[in-house]
Amino acid sequence: MERMTSSGPVVRQPYGVAPPGGREPANLGDILERVLDRGVVIAGDIRVNLLDIELLTIKLRLLIASVDTARELGIDWWEHDPWLSGRDRELVEENRRLRRRLAAVEGPADLDE
Amino acid sequence: MSDSGTYLYAVASESVPVGAPGVAGTPVRTITRGGLVAYVSTVPLAEFGEEPLRHSLEDLDWLAETARAHHGVVDEVSRVPVAPVRLVTVYADDDQVAELLDRRGEEFLEVLSHVAGRREWGVKAYARQTPDPAESPMTGGDPGKPGTSYLRRRRESLRGREQARRLALARAEQIHATLSSEAVASCRHRAQDPHLSGREERMLLNGAYLVDEGRDEEFAALVGSLGGDGVDLRLTGPWAPYSFTVLEAG
After folding, report:
1. Distance from CA of A88 to the nearest CA of B (A)
2. Fewer CB within 10 Å: C terminus or N terminus of chain A?
3. Helical segments of chain A, H only
């Protein structure tokens, strides 16, 4: 088996100069997503196993928002920006009314769909 | 029934001294079996039993502290090929851990040989925020029709934002593909919420890349060459190979 050497000092920052691209220190999010969501999962003979996603609290889920879970939780900005999604019916309706009113006040314009 | 359990941090192929304290300030020790070394500590079940954990996992301060301690141990062990185990994996006693190493030894050795001599790097891409032209003071348009002019600007702005969003996502795909070609393996984590990333900008890419140790500098240089043009790239690491030791050991 291929092995890394275990002797000698460990070089944690291999570059003497600031690297291109910008290095940032590991934040809590980086650590949490790795220790909670990656690595070896052991099931079966384990005594305590709290690794299932349902055991992550809502608080934690809000912080580690994935595109999928964020959508469920209503914090997906792409989906929920009414200007982008155009799915908010009330807004669409209101928009239509305002355009009609605007056309009445300022005269017709090429703003209708 | 015992009032303590054996907390498992990681499995490695070699024994290295660990100076960092483990979770809840416990000392870290090793259990060796057939070419595998498990890094463990003895933890009180009053804190690490199933019921207490249900409550303490709700406590972000406790979680942060425990995650950092767990990561601290894994990070030290990552001097040698290591397979990190998920947070709060607690066994009844050392015998159970030894039995795991016996039973699943081959799979562990296989995973470890895959990550030997390689390190994980994290690359995050952020979209730089651009000002919304619709919010800027009115320019052009018919001064007699401020409402119509506003709607025009608003529409142009929306088109611009939608286009910018598509371009940014396509760019992230492209960056990930380029970095993956330089890596032995790669994967994408969930984009982090601004609360977690600590940055206002949208995260477009949260990638992890397993890179041969000798290629570290090339990889960093590649990351440096891919940023700019509305996208900020940030490199983290080296990490223990968390993202590349995913193994269901039943």
Report:
1. 15
2. C
3. 28-37, 58-63, 67-73, 77-80, 82-85, 89-106
